[in-house]
Amino acid sequence: MPKQHPILPPHLLESICKVIANTETGLTGTEIRKILGDCSIRDTDPQMTKWKRLYNAFVHWQNVNHCSNHILKFIQAALQPVRYIGREGTFQDRRNEINKRLSFIGLEIGETGKYRNIDKTSTISQAEQRASKFKYKLEARNAHQQIFIYCSAELLVENYFHSIFEAVKSIADRIRELTGLTSDGVELINTAFSIDAPLLKINSLSNSTDRSEHLGFVNIIRGLFGVIRNPTAHEPKIKFVIEEEEALDVMVMVSFTHKRLDRVIKK
User: H/E element holding 77?
Assistant: First the structure.
């Protein structure tokens, strides 16, 4: 006999329905009717606003059956990956929002569209941390692990301002760790990657091409410090506006830098 899942409280049901049946981004009325039928849930009020229609259908089913099994079945059916071929962004956004809400009952839907058990959340911040869209996008880009080590709290709440600041700071910390130096900024970079007496080299520096590549890498680090670290350290957040795509671009550059540091030649 299938496990009986407890009834979902009204406020959680309402929140889920408002995501699934959102006027702009949710399922169409036709899709709602089809999935309700597939899940053997009676469409009690087909003429109502989409989210209210879905909410009433869910409430009626729970009142009759005293569990939430078919409601969870509906949510899973609505998030089957095959429905989103060519629309991966829609799938990830919808799954992200649904998982924030499911986290309050100790469930989430994975990339495969299957449920998995998680520790229950009890606060909004915990729910946001469970389902960070920004973190997912970084993981999809195979971002270097140092980024997640330095920026976990900021990334999980999608705080772009602080996440890029911490990520760029991680480069300086990594260079100090590799060299034993205690300086910072341009002084740290110039000493660590000096052409005449380098503590770190990205190649053998045996010819002009090698030296040019080495200096190019150093200039990338200088650029990240000059464009990101220095302004974010001195400008209030409200004056330093950065959107998600720009933050991702910065993180990709930081990730590249760390991956190159993985292969440096130490003195």
Answer: helix 69-78
